[in-house]
Write a structure and sequence with these properties.
Helices cover 40% and strands 21% of the residues. It is of the alpha/beta class. The chain folds into 2 domains: 173 residues, 3-Layer(aba) Sandwich (Rossmann fold), CATH 3.40.50; 91 residues, Pantoate-beta-alanine ligase, C-terminal domain (Pantoate--beta-alanine Ligase, Chain: A,domain 2, 2-Layer Sandwich). It has a 6-stranded parallel beta sheet, with helices on both faces. The longest helix has 16 residues. 38% of the residues are buried. Bound molecules: adenosine monophosphate (AMP). The site of adenosine monophosphate (AMP) has 17 residues, from helix 2 and strand 5.
Length: 282
């Protein structure tokens, strides 16, 4: 596996692959890899000749007072893990490489797709995401890019951006990988205290029970939402940021649970903000 730190080196390396008509699969990450990330890389490995990943804790997607400085990092371990799943090229640029002095250009998806859910609680977050992902797409120029459904709004925003800006890249959403008790894997789970870790299971449990309610015929989104809120409030350390039932493509709130439905939530457990969701066709 090659480890490269500059845009010029990545371009050089991938030019060879493209000339040889090899397909390129790309997985952008912020590192501190876990099985959720690795599942994306494994899928990319199956479907492409060359697998590229990036590890970059992107400063522009963190707001003031968020965890940019404390975000967990372990480059040695990450590169070993990436190698075990057959990654060919790991791109790990320093911040200066992506945002040199005098940098002024941003990519932003406007409107309701970024205005609700995490976009509402984290203003500017998706502007940072669409900017860095466009830059990475321009550098790597992959055939396919893999994103976790764990960040459901991110998937919707990236799909919108790819449509709007005519990126010739297939966006492949991949399922959420969970711990045995249901907690969605996340690099931020390391922030949880032992008590918080126990309580965090309430997020996925509530979502699974909401799914059961829907499967037994409940169609009223407000009833399902109220049920989830009550459930999550039973955890002492839980502080709800949002719980919404929306159309999975448009991210617009729905009253009747019908079609491509996404139940998405963000909850603070102690100081740790966690997100989770469930998507279902009703
Ligand atoms: P991050 O490093 O948090 O920016 O995540 C990089 C990619 O891994 C994103 O596409 C995430 O959605 C995806 N990802 C993170 N956690 C999971 C998970 N538990 N299951 C599947 N994909 C995940």
């Amino acid at each position: 596996m090659k480890i490269l730190h500059t845009i010029a080196d990545v371009r050089d390396e991938l030019k060879k692959a493209r000339t040889a008509h090899k397909t390129i699969g790309f997985v952008p990450t912020m590192g501190y890899l876990h099985q959720g990330h690795l599942s994306l890389m494994e899928r990319a490995r199956q479907e492409n000749d060359v697998v590229v990943i990036s590890i970059f804790v992107n400063p522009t997607q963190f707001g003031q007072g968020e965890d940019l400085d404390s975000y967990p990092r372990d480059f040695e371990r990450d590169s070993q893990l990436a190698e075990t799943v057959g990654v060919d090229l790991l791109f790990a640029p320093p911040a200066q490489e992506m945002y040199p002095e005098g940098y002024t250009t941003y990519v932003e998806a406007e409107g309701s797709i970024t205005g609700l859910l995490c976009g509402r609680s984290r203003p500017g977050h998706f502007k940072g995401v669409t900017t860095i992902v466009s830059k990475l797409f321009n550098i790597v120029m992959p055939d396919r890019a893999y994103f976790g459904q764990k960040d459901a709004q991110q998937v919707a925003v990236i799909q919108q951006m790819v449509r709007d800006l005519d990126f010739d890249i297939d966006i492949i959403p991949c399922p959420i990988i969970r711990e045995e008790d249901g907690l969605a894997l996340s690099s931020r789970n390391t922030y949880l205290t032992p008590q918080g870790r126990k309580e965090a299971v309430v997020l996925s449990q509530s979502l699974f029970r909401a799914k059961e309610m829907i499967e037994s015929g409940e169609e009223d989104a407000s009833k399902i939402r109220a049920f989830i809120i009550e459930n999550i409030r039973s955890a002492k350390e839980a502080d709800i940021d949002y719980i919404e039932i929306v159309n999975a493509r448009t991210l617009q709130k729905i009253e009747k649970v019908q079609g491509d439905v996404l139940i998405a939530l963000a909850v603070k457990i102690g100081k740790t903000r966690l997100i989770d969701n469930i998507r279902m066709e009703v």
